[in-house]
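Budget justification aside, the reviewers requested a transparent look at the raw inputs and outputs of the sequence design task funded under Objective 1. We therefore reproduce one unedited record. The lines immediately below are the structure tokens for a 189-residue chain.
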């Protein structure tokens, strides 16, 4: 039996949909209230400001990303396969309805210059992803440079897919990742 989201979760999910779909600055608290189906007083009881709500939305989005990557890697038997599963996860995401690129890059582009909190959350999410890739590469005995290259491929694929409307960027990034991994770990004949 699935558990119904709490009112707070409904608010965060509604704000996430609106902020991601329309942009943060163009969405007011009244639109969030309407989307979440809660009274404005209740919305402000949960989140006293739009900044507080945005912070929770970004934390929610970071959790979704981490869970999505972990689920994609769950069945992969080796660190190499787990790394390549990242690009498979991206390919599915890029083809999903409403894909608009990385929510952290979008938030940083919109507010990073004026909001230290948004800049910090975006920075931490990117650093966390880099650590995840770095840990998998280290398990293989690979270099930090390879980890950085593989993370950059994933980040670039997100931007290419969003701006260029090219979901196949995930497959291209995966192919490039295989080349980079193969260069560091050549198969002996």
């Amino acid at each position: 039996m699935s558990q119904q989201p709490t009112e707070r979760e409904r608010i965060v999910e509604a704000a996430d949909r609106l902020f991601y779909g329309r942009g943060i600055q163009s969405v007011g608290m009244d639109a969030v209230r309407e989307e979440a189906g809660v009274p404005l007083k209740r919305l402000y009881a949960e989140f006293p400001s739009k900044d507080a709500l945005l912070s929770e939305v970004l934390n929610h989005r970071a959790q979704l990303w981490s869970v999505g990557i972990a689920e994609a890697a769950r069945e992969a038997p080796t660190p190499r396969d787990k790394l390549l599963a990242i690009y498979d996860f991206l390919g599915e995401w890029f083809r999903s309805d409403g894909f608009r690129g990385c929510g952290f890059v979008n938030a940083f582009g919109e507010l990073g210059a004026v909001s230290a909190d948004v800049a910090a959350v975006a920075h931490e999410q990117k650093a966390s992803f880099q650590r995840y890739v770095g840990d998998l590469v280290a398990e293989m005995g690979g270099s930090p440079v390879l980890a950085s290259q593989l993370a950059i491929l994933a980040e670039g694929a997100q931007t290419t897919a969003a701006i260029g409307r090219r979901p196949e960027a995930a497959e291209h990034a995966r192919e490039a990742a295989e080349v980079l991994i193969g260069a560091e770990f050549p198969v002996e004949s």
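The chain has one domain: 7-184. The two ends are 52 Å apart (CA to CA). Computational costs for records of this kind are itemized in the attached budget.
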